[in-house]
Design brief:
The structure is a homodimer of 185-residue chains. Chain A is mainly alpha-helical and 185 residues long. Chain A has a domain of 128 residues: Tetracycline Repressor, domain 2 (Orthogonal Bundle), CATH 1.10.357.10. The radius of gyration of chain A is 18 Å and the shape is elongated. In chain A, helix 5 packs antiparallel against helix 9, helix 6 packs across helix 7 and helix 8 packs antiparallel against helix 9. The first copy, chain A, has nine helices and no strands. Chains A and B meet through helix 6, helix 7, helix 8 and helix 9 of A and helix 6, helix 7, helix 8 and helix 9 of B. The structure holds a DNA duplex (18 and 18 nucleotides). Chains A, B: InterPro entries: DNA-bd_HTH_TetR-type_CS, Homeodomain-like_sf, HTH_TetR, Tet_transcr_reg_TetR-rel_C_sf, YxaF_TetR_C. Chains A, B: It comes from Arcticibacterium luteifluviistationis. Chains A, B: This is TetR/AcrR family transcriptional regulator.
DNA sequence: GTCTATATCAAGATAGAC
DNA sequence: GTCTATCTTGATATAGAC
């Protein structure tokens, strides 16, 4: 039996998946502790509060997306269309292969509208997302057009994730990907 | 001083605006009672539980949208493009002129994904929404195309509402309306 | 129909033993 | 680092007086 059951990184990953599935307010510290195989009391050894934890979860999501997804937009060794496809496929894996849809969109609608705490991180994530798409679109379109196409794509994805959740099918999101990719044809 | 301070309809309207702004889980019965000018105890005279109340709120939203917005799609005295414009303007008033965005989308992401209770109503609302758009698109496009355009429009609206909320500007939603309307040009 | 008072429970959070 | 025990608060909900 090890002295240490878990660590911050592991907890953040577990918390991410619980928050994504159940939402912020509908997840209790007790839920999180259980999901991590800890007692509630032990949980506070790692995070001072639910708010602090969610803040770190969102920061982790931000780092991961920047590092593993949005960075693809700058891989100029790939043709623009291939870059777009690669990035969308990666994004799809992040958004599709897990229960609960998109933590960024979920949290935006649940918390950000009335609460300032997480707003900056959420905005920054969407800004990076938009910017990554814009970079690729600019290989084919002028800046203004690229910017609008990028914004449109992100909004379409979020709408599609919502529908995919509600109707329990990936089809809406897949279609949204195809539509975005077709703009690079 | 009147014996009766309020009534079910009034409470539903107030609850709608509180739920839209603060979300379902983040709204307490106490919040709702206060917003209605009632004591918590009095509130239960009208609704047995928060869940029942939210159910009725969503049903009311559904009725209102059917009656006041989606019905416009069938006003064949108007030219298709004018019908579309009229419907979108009305929808814009419903979605824009109030704090908290779209209660249908908010509730879908917050509650419907993990909870079956409100899912049927939310689905029915989105189905009617999609269908209203489809009816108008079919004046110009074949059925399959109309269906896809309608789905796309709804998803785009929801994405745009999310952005409008986060960035505190109506522009995203306005742009989405323009894009949809332009498909009827 | 509205009020005050209260029961019950779960949530966030802390203290201190091991 | 983890546990149990506990504090405090706020939430849902009910009872009964007016």
């Amino acid at each position: 039996m090890p002295l240490t059951k878990t660590n911050k990184e592991e907890i953040i990953q577990t918390a991410l998946s619980v928050f994504r599935k159940n939402g912020y307010y509908n997840t209790s510290m007790s839920d999180l502790a259980t999901a991590c195989g800890l007692q509630k009391g032990s949980f506070y050894h790692y995070f001072a509060s639910k708010e602090v934890l969610m803040g770190e979860v969102l920061k982790t999501v931000q780092s991961y997306l920047d590092y593993a997804v949005f960075s693809i937009a700058k891989q100029t060794d790939l043709a623009p269309r291939d870059r777009m496809e690669k990035m969308l496929l990666k994004l799809g894996k992040v958004l599709l292969s897990q229960e609960g849809g998109c933590i960024v969109g979920n949290t935006t609608l649940e918390v950000a509208a009335q609460n300032v705490i997480f707003k900056d991180t959420l905005k920054a994530i969407f800004d990076s997302w938009k910017n990554a798409l814009k970079i690729i679109f600019m290989e084919k379109y002028p800046e203004g057009t690229s910017n609008r196409l990028a914004e449109q794509s992100v909004m379409e994805f979020e709408g599609a994730v919502m529908f995919s959740q509600l109707y329990q099918t990936d089809q809406y999101l897949k279609d949204a990907f195809v539509r975005t990719l077709s703009k690079m044809k």
